[in-house]
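Record type: ASSEMBLY
Status: queued
Input:
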Amino acid sequence: AYHMGRKLVPMSGIGIWPLAAAASLLCQPALRHDQPAAWRTTWARCAIAATEPEVAQQLVQDTWFATAIAARPAVLAPVFETVRDEATAALCTMNRPQRKDEAWRRTDLSLLFGASLTTPSPVIDSDVLSNVLDDGNEGGNEGLARVVIVNGNFSPDLSDLRGLPTGMFAGSLSDFEGDATRDALLQAVRQMPETDADPRTALGCCQFGALNQGCLSDVTLVYVPADTIASVRLVILSSCSADDALAAQAATSGATAQQRPTSFAISHPNVLVRLEPSARLNLLQQYSGCGSYFSNGLTRLEIGEDALLEHTYLQEQGSQAVHIDALLASCDARSSYQLQAVQTGARISRLNLGVSLQDVQASATVNGLMLASGNQLLDLHSSVLHSSGACSSSQMQRNALAGRARVVFKGAVQVPFGSDNTKADQLCRSLLLSDSARVDVQPTLEIFTDEVECTHGATITDLDDEMVFYLQSRGLDRKQARTLLLQGWVNDCLSQVPLARAKQRVVMKAGALALESERRVVRRSDLSSI
Amino acid sequence: HAIMGPNGSGKSTLSKTLVGHPAYTVTGGLAMFNGGDLLELEPEQRAQQGIFLAFQYPVEIPGVANTDFLRLAVNKRRTALGQEEYDPIEFFGVLSEKMASVEMSSDFLSRDVNSGFSGGEKKRNEILQLALLEPELAILDETDSGLDIDALKTVAGGVNRYKSDRNAIILITHYQRLLDYIEPDFVHVMHKGRIVRSGGPELAKELEADGYAFLEGAAPL
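Status: finished
Output:
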């Protein structure tokens, strides 16, 4: 059930505030007598706010959230309005993540908070589109169903659903037939993430999750009925604003993208994947786009009893983009969730991964890979919660960084009291390929019961100079040797990626990291003299 | 040329220096290879020109497949010799043939470089690379250490097949046993970084009998 954790406080001291931005602030919610008194005050205020912007600006505690709400699109179907209203009401009282919040302590979002937020252009960059189509056109993959989301909205034009088995649905939740199920699914969407979470251990998806739900225009559903086997490719595309796109075209061919973007086109993809009992789904979730945009996503995965979800998450956003996403999975009895999460793109990328093992013999295997170069900041905060005993989980994270990149990894395994016979293991291996790169690794185990087997470990190294020398002694030069080693190291993590072209891009990025770090001098003291 | 000597005499240091291991800096002297200054070259250049070191402790490289690595190395050598590179199919044929000669099992192809190999397999892998790369100078650094009798015979067989008038071998070893299988033309004794004595194959048998006691008063040659 949703509840507001805070009292409404009147705003003061906002400072200079453009009235126009607040003008389209809140839509018209209906007042209902069965809602608690505090809510009714909010609703009343919201109703006034639509006609009195000055009052409205006093409602939204945080100016940045206010601009985000102002930039939101209209909702595509009336059925989503309740979700939006509830989330907006919650958002009014929230502050954006601060560096003093534990969950965001190591992730600097000042680039995002200092910029203005604009509406994305409806036109997707042609290179991005052709890459999407080419990826799917390889041998053996032509029959793979493709669900495309553009700036948060399901796009029937770009999608290709011919390969879907009967009974399966992929598209906007508003188009789903079967009122009872649709209502149940909508209920699931209305739940906002981490409303009650302990701030010391929370993933940090409360605020951006509320922002997503408060600004979404569509919810995309992938529904797999019981005992059905399917493979789906979910492609989430974003574009920058029309002005930025024009400016980029007008720029001279020699100029690179602006160093520090001052505006981001914001979109909120919201995805719900439901597997009924004994269903099996192979899901490839890809993100890409061009220009400077902010993709604020929320994906829920509900895996029914005895179901299996093989999930490959490929974040290949544009180099000027900000990507913040929450991936929340819940696993019923005897179900299995196998995730391969690869992050290579975006200037700032934060993935909040929450896996909840709800009932006995559920299992989760979470493998992650982050490749960071230049001045990227890639962040994975994950939490594997063993709500039930007799479940198992395994997490393996690999990071490689070069240049002045930063990677943050916080992997939590939570075993509450009563979850006996838990088996969990976690390992994080990082390759620091340059002296200016920095990785923050925080493995945590929160265990409140005795009958468990939990391990965690972390290693941080450079490429082994002995291995590099072995390859050199066989004729490969240093650059080739380091590239071969990095690509081999990364290849191990990509076994689940079904598209060869996508795999190749990740391997090429690993090779590029080797080149970026080439200038490092070999440290004599690290070598054995045997 | 076999080089023998007590532990710590500098045999491995010599071999590592010749192939350009970054742990060592040469402060004096010179090494000439085929009329050129060897010490000026990068390790990969020395390898391409035909120097090969069979390591005493070959390092494991998980994630890099044997086939990819070997094909890259062989093609580098062939390019340096002015020969055509092998494509993967041709290379597979060449590799299979050489694998048979060192009795390497067929699952070798699907494994990563030295990854999970036993000591004997690692040494045989070094000799396999020797057979594939066909260097002009092969330095075998204690190739016999850690090998059982049969593995020793296989390794020695591989080396003998490679041995010819067109190449040279520096064989570093402690024991006479290997020299029974690979007959040296010259035997040298190294002590404190210098060659103190040289001779023919019979010198090895003398060392086997009397040990290195004579080195107490020996002066370098």
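Annotation: The CA atoms of residues 189 and 426 of chain A lie 30 Å apart.
Annotation: The longest strand of chain A covers residues 229-239.
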